[in-house]
Amino acid sequence: MSQNDLPPSNFDDDRLREVIDYALREDPEAEERRGLKKRSKRLWKGVKTTARKVKKTAKREREETIIAAQILRRYMRDKDSVSAEELAFLKDQSIDIMRILPIVAVQAFPAPVPITPFLIALGSKIGINLVPKEQVHPDEYRERVPKDNQGRQN
């Protein structure tokens, strides 16, 4: 077959290169999808990290609340039997319990995902600290607080 036997082509060499370049170039949305995937992995990692912190904080707060309840019980029986250090601990722990109440109230409603990490993040963005702070235990209660595997107080 000679060149004259071929049907006429609408493509010249430049147009053919453009078509080939277009076919071989990467889909612009593919880069966006990869970026979205990376961002979602980072977000999920952040959510898991925050959830771990919340779990650790909840465990610590449970122990501190038990200690505060013991101090309060003693205070109700005899006001003079409670030291100033214990009263300060009781006051600080009461403030922490008030910080936790909004999170507990929201958890009463069923939700498709755990929303505690999102509430903590939202609170910090608007200037409200919903994470309770760690208390210094009064001396006589220090040995009652469970230790973690490394011997540190929780």
Order of helices and strands: HHHH
Largest sheet: none
Radius of gyration, Cα only, in angstroms? 31 Å
Overall tally of structural domains: 1
Give the mean pLDDT. 76
What fraction strand?
under 5%
Number of helices: 4
- Helix content estimate: 55-70%
Structural class: mainly alpha
Uncertain runs? 149-154
C-alpha end-to-end distance = 86 Å
Form type:
rod-shaped
**How many E strands?**
0
Task: Describe the secondary-structure layout.
Layout: H1 13-24, H2 28-77, H3 84-107, H4 116-125
Helix pairs in contact: 2-3
Describe the structure in your own words.
It is rod-shaped and about 100 Å long. It is mainly alpha-helical and 154 residues long. It has one domain (12-144). The model is unreliable at 149-154 (pLDDT under 50). Helix content is 62%, strand content 0%. The protein is built from four helices and no strands. It has helices at residues 13-24, 28-77, 84-107, 116-125. α2 crosses α3 (84-107).
Brief rundown of the structure:
With 154 residues, the chain is mainly α.
Question: How would you describe this structure in keywords?
Answer:
4 helices; disordered C terminus
